[in-house]
């Protein structure tokens, strides 16, 4: 059976829940992209463990480490410090990787065209990407139009963002409802052994679990105030 959809699976919680949603609808293929991020090794392990959980017959891991060479982001340039506790800050965060989602989508759409899949799922969340210009539905709509112009007639590839307007707590609840393996996921921007509990990604995740009234199953180096029981 040919995959109906490509799922961009970073190994993070949002992409895992997105995979669970897509897997409900039929055969899926999982795509992972290494781009020279600080937690590349851990994210790749999480990707493979989640793909194993779902019994993925089609999976692809690719490398675009030129994004690390380009730099300009705290996720790829170790000379730029990952900020601590900067939730609510205005402007584009230093964790923004310039035009990253365009690179990811281009690869996914190329693979979808080859496999004959008509949907590409990406776990983008506007709550996460506040200030990220490539993390809005408007951006994905525009990219979908570009894909229609740049692929074979009849490809009709749609970009699906099922979590785009959801709060992190609702994503946690959705993952639990679908039986997604949240214990296999990794969200920390900075560390690979134990999550730092200080970067924005950790804080958003901890807040989501706290608001959902559920304990986060992954290990943190220190316990943030945001993890207190609701």
Word description of this protein:
With 230 residues, the protein is of the alpha/beta class. The chain has one domain: Rossmann fold, CATH 3.40.50.620. The protein has helices spanning 13-23, 40-53, 66-70, 100-115, 137-150, 168-178, 200-212, and strands at 5-8, 28-34, 58-63, 119-121, 158-160. Strands 3-2-1-4-5 form a five-stranded parallel beta sheet, sandwiched between helices. Strand 2, helix 2 (40-53) and strand 3 (58-63) form a beta-alpha-beta unit. Helix 1 (13-23) crosses helix 6 (168-178) and helix 6 packs across helix 7 (200-212). The model is unreliable at 224-230 (pLDDT under 50).
Quick recap:
The chain is of the alpha/beta class. The protein has seven helices and five strands; from the N terminus they run βαβαβααβαβαα. Helix 2 links the parallel strand 2 and strand 3.
């Amino acid at each position: 059976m040919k995959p109906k959809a490509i799922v961009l699976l970073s190994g993070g919680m949002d992409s895992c829940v997105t995979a669970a949603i897509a897997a409900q609808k039929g055969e899926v293929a999982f795509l992972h992209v290494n781009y020279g991020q600080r937690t590349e090794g851990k994210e790749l392990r999480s990707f493979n463990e989640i793909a194993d959980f779902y019994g993925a017959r089609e999976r692809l891991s690719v490398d675009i480490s030129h994004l690390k060479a380009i730099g300009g982001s705290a996720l790829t340039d170790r000379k730029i410090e990952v900020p601590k506790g900067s939730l609510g800050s205005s402007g584009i965060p230093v964790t923004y990787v310039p035009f990253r989602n365009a690179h990811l989508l281009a690869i996914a759409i190329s693979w979808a065209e080859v496999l004959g899949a008509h949907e590409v799922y990406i776990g983008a969340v506007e709550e996460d990407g506040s200030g990220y210009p490539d993390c809005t539905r408007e951006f994905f709509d525009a990219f979908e139009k570009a894909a229609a112009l740049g692929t074979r007639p009849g490809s009709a590839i749609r970009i699906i963002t099922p979590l785009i307007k959801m709060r992190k707590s609702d994503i946690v609840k959705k993952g639990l409802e679908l039986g997604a393996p949240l214990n296999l996921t990794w969200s920390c921007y900075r560390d690979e052994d134990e999550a730092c509990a200080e970067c924005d990604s950790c804080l958003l995740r901890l807040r989501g679990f706290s608001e959902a009234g559920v304990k986060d199953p992954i290990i943190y180096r220190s316990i943030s105030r945001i993890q207190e029981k609701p």
